[in-house]
């Protein structure tokens, strides 16, 4: 114990000696938008599963996260994405808030289960899902915000997990 105390005291004295004559200067300037280069983009982001809700609407099928959160609710604090923040129905309100926050960009993900219910292009696309994302992008652009799209955010259709084992199989692509 005495050795530890001696070490702490020694380190303290050394740090005092090293910093002697130097004053610490803290900036009182607040960090704001103008602290960044003019072409810096500020934005917000979301994840389809965590944000959209409407899991049984618009032709959307079950994703691996739907399956997991319902099969093991105790592992997810009893939460799931069934309703989430209901972005599917409220996206115009949310885009308005993003604009009011003076954001430049909005990064969102596309739910495969919403646009490719079976997970396969060969089985056809869900036009209702495509229309949702088209409307979303149009609303983003209409509000002067730049969309950034994530095409995979860990929520593949459950059908692909069942058939291929998800990304464990090269056949998923």
TrEMBL record:
Where it sits in the cell: the answer is: Vacuole
Single Gene Ontology BP annotation: response to salt stress
Task: Quote the cellular component terms of the Gene Ontology held in the record.
Answer: vacuole
Catalytic activity from the UniProt record: a thioglucoside + H2O = a sugar + a thiol
Subcellular location, principal = other
Could you tell me which Gene3D superfamilies the record lists for this protein?
Glycosidases
- Tell me the enzyme class: hydrolase
Cross-referenced Pfam families: Glyco_hydro_1 (PF00232)
Q: What molecular functions are annotated in GO for this chain?
A: beta-glucosidase activity; thioglucosidase activity
The entry's function note states: Degradation of glucosinolates (glucose residue linked by a thioglucoside bound to an amino acid derivative) to glucose, sulfate and any of the products: thiocyanates, isothiocyanates, nitriles, epithionitriles or oxazolidine-2-thiones.
Into which family does the record put it? Belongs to the glycosyl hydrolase 1 family.
Matches recorded under PANTHER family: BETA-GLUCOSIDASE 31-RELATED, GLYCOSYL HYDROLASE
The name of this protein is thioglucosidase
Organism per entry? Brassica carinata (Ethiopian mustard)
């Amino acid at each position: 114990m005495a050795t530890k105390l001696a070490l702490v005291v020694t380190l303290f004295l050394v740090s005092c000696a090293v910093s002697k004559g130097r004053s610490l200067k803290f900036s009182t300037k607040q960090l704001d938008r103008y602290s960044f280069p003019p072409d810096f983009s500020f934005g917000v982001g979301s994840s389809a599963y965590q944000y959209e809700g409407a899991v049984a609407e618009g032709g959307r099928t079950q994703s691996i996260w739907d399956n997991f959160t319902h099969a093991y609710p105790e592992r997810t604090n009893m939460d799931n994405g069934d309703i989430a923040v209901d972005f599917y129905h409220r996206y115009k309100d949310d885009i308005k808030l993003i604009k009011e926050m003076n954001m430049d960009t909005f990064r969102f993900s596309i739910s495969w289960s919403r646009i490719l219910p079976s997970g396969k292009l060969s089985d056809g696309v869900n036009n209702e899902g495509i229309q949702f994302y088209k409307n979303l992008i149009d609303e983003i652009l209409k509000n002067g915000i730049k969309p950034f799209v994530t095409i995979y955010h860990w929520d593949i259709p459950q059908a692909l997990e069942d058939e291929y084992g998800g990304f464990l199989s090269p056949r998923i692509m």
